[in-house]
């Protein structure tokens, strides 16, 4: 995805969040100029302190990012950071809810463990998850 396409996807996501509009009917695709129908957006918020923001992004790039790209139905995702709340917001777009929910729990847990290992290494935290989940939900088109 080009830098312009990524910027547009982030701006669209921010506009939807700020406008309180929970719909995401169309989103930027992985190729420039491509529009992909989105059936559901997975919405996650994590506690991400300012001093650990870079570590969070590195852990995401080394775990969830490559794994998600291999999943059937994955359309794309946006990683956003709220400085006031010290939270990271993830908006993960899926072509169908069925494809998203068909992913085995064991696979998700394995990727989460990899994410936490990378996060602990990057933050120097000895155990646990340096970026705990604050909110988990989904956004649906009308």
Structural account:
- The longest helix is centred in the C-terminal third of the chain and has 19 residues, at 105-123.
- The strands form 2 sheets. This protein has a 4-stranded antiparallel beta sheet.
- The protein has a single domain, classed as 2-Layer Sandwich (Alpha-Beta Plaits).
- It is α+β, with helices and mostly antiparallel strands.
- Helix content is 39%, strand content 27%.
- The model is unreliable at 1-32 (pLDDT under 50).
Instruction: Tell me the count of domains.
Output: 1
Indicate the proportion of strand residues: 25-35%
Q: What characterizes the major β-sheet?
A: 4 strands, antiparallel
Structural class: alpha+beta
Order of strands in the sheet with most strands: 4-5-3-6
Which CATH first-tier class would you pick? Answer: Alpha Beta
End-to-end separation:
27 Å
Task: Say how many strands there are.
Answer: 6
* SSE ordering: HEEEHHEEHHE
Helix percentage: 25-40%
Low-confidence stretches: 1-32
CATH topology descriptor: Alpha-Beta Plaits
Overall mean pLDDT score?
83
Q: C-alpha Rg, in Å? A: 15 Å
The dominant shape is: globular
* SS summary, helix count: 5
Q: Could you say what the CATH architecture is?
A: 2-Layer Sandwich
């Amino acid at each position: 995805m080009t830098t312009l396409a990524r910027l547009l996807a982030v701006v669209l996501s921010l506009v939807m969040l700020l406008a309180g509009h929970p719909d995401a009917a169309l989103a930027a695709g992985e190729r420039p100029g491509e529009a992909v129908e989105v059936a559901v957006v997975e919405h996650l918020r994590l506690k991400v302190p300012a001093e650990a923001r870079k570590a969070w992004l590195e852990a995401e790039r080394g775990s969830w990012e490559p794994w998600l790209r291999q999943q059937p139905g994955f359309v794309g995702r946006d990683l956003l950071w709220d400085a006031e709340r010290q939270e990271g917001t993830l908006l993960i777009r899926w072509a169908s809810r069925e494809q998203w929910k068909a992913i085995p729990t064991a696979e998700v847990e394995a990727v989460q463990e990899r994410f936490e290992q990378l996060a602990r290494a990057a933050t120097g935290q000895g155990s646990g998850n340096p970026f705990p989940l604050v909110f988990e939900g989904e956004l649906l088109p009308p």
